[in-house]
Design goal:
The structure is a single chain. The strands form four sheets. Strands 4-3-6-1-2-5 form a six-stranded antiparallel β-sheet, covered by helices on one side. Strands 9-8-7-10-11 form a five-stranded parallel β-sheet, with helices on both faces. It has a five-stranded mixed β-sheet with strand order 13-12-18-14-16. Helix 4 links the parallel strand 10 and strand 11. With 321 residues, it is α/β, with parallel strands linked by helices. The protein is built from six helices and 18 strands. It folds into three domains: 90 residues, Translation factors (Elongation Factor Tu (Ef-tu), domain 3, Beta Barrel), CATH 2.40.30.10; 113 residues, Nucleotide-binding domain of ferredoxin-NADP reductase (FNR) module (Rossmann fold), CATH 3.40.50; 84 residues, Roll (Ubiquitin-like (UB roll)), CATH 3.10.20.30.
Length: 321
């Protein structure tokens, strides 16, 4: 697994519960370039790897900027960052990956909920730099809980940014942004935020007539898992193409669990199907996709699977490992 060595150059408080972390190459110089919507995996411990979206401008080549909201009920990543990380700390990270890229369109409508602003902020920077037409809506509970509020208000695209606070009666439940009420051809809509927030927007925009190909989403937490008794929940076999060895995957274990237990090296990060680190080629068999990464067309192709959460609809899957 390729990694980069970086140091924590600075830490800033960006809301009552969020902090931004500026990462620079430990040896100095530049870092690999990235496109708006990309994320990196941050290695916080032997078994603690978490993906975080890059929220700085893609034109920056000397640093990566992430913003993390503290979630005391989460799986430990944000707590470790908030409680243990200090300026000067050395970290290992992955090179940037992008499963949420900007598509070509005459106009972009960006809609963020809470910490979902991070990838959309990078998109706004990129769109503003190229003089593109766009608007950015950011929904939060209050001004105090708005990540990166000062940066949004002082940015070159501040006039194209609309901040919504639910404690002032302005939430996504009171109505969609005006730009989403009537479908517009050649307009791309990007949504990132809590699951309920995103589901509501997708449901309402679809009902309004927006086409699925116009709606682009990225989740920070997975959608509700399928019921245990559904198709694909039983045991199946994964076979490794390079060795021909097959491994049984019980109903209560993931493909990744089984492969790592047998010494097969695989790349993992979020282990929830939301980052794409573990996408693995499928040479034969039909996957039962349970990720939030692949598009409908990519799922239909059936040639890659997220081994951290997805399963099989056929008795056996042949993996390109």
């Amino acid at each position: 697994m390729q990694t980069l060595d970086v140091i924590v150059h600075s830490i800033s408080l960006t809301s009552a519960t969020s902090r931004s972390y500026e990462l620079r190459a430990a040896a100095g110089g530049t870092l690999p370039s990235f496109e708006a919507g990309a994320h990196i995996d941050v290695h916080l411990g032997p078994s603690l790897i978490r993906p975080y979206s890059l929220c700085n401008s893609p034109q920056d080549n000397g640093r990566y900027l992430i913003c993390v909201r503290r979630d005391d009920a989460g799986r430990g990543g944000s707590r470790t960052l908030h409680h243990d990380l200090t300026v000067g700390r050395r970290l290992r990270i992955s090179p940037p990956r992008n499963h949420f890229p900007l598509v070509a369109a005459e106009r972009h409508v960006l809609v963020a909920g809470g910490i979902g602003i991070t990838p959309l902020l990078s998109m706004a920077e990129a769109l503003a730099a190229r003089g593109a037409s766009f608007v950015l809506h950011h929904y939060t509970s209050s001004a105090a809980e708005t990540p990166l509020l000062e940066r949004l208000q002082s940015s070159v695209f501040g006039e194209r940014t609309v901040i919504h606070h639910s404690d002032q009666g302005d939430s996504i439940r009171t109505g969609l942004p005006a730009e989403l009420l009537v479908p517009e051809p050649d307009t791309a809509v990007y949504v990132c935020g809590p699951d309920g927030f995103m589901t509501h927007i997708v449901t309402e925009t679809t009902a309004a007539g927006w086409q699925p190909g116009q709606l682009h989403t990225e989740r920070f937490t997975p959608a509700a898992p399928p019921a245990a008794a559904d198709e694909g929940a039983g045991e199946f076999t994964v076979r490794i193409a390079s060795t021909g060895i097959g491994y049984a995957v019980p109903a209560d274990r993931t493909i990744a669990d089984v492969l790592t237990a047998h010494g097969v090296e695989v790349e993992l990060s979020c282990e929830q199907g939301i980052c794409g680190a573990c996408l693995t080629p499928v040479l034969d068999g039909e996957p039962d996709h349970r990720d939030e990464v692949q598009t409908p067309d990519e799922r239909a192709a059936g040639d890659r699977i997220t081994i951290c959460c997805s399963r099989a609809r056929t008795p056996e899957l042949l993996l390109g490992l």
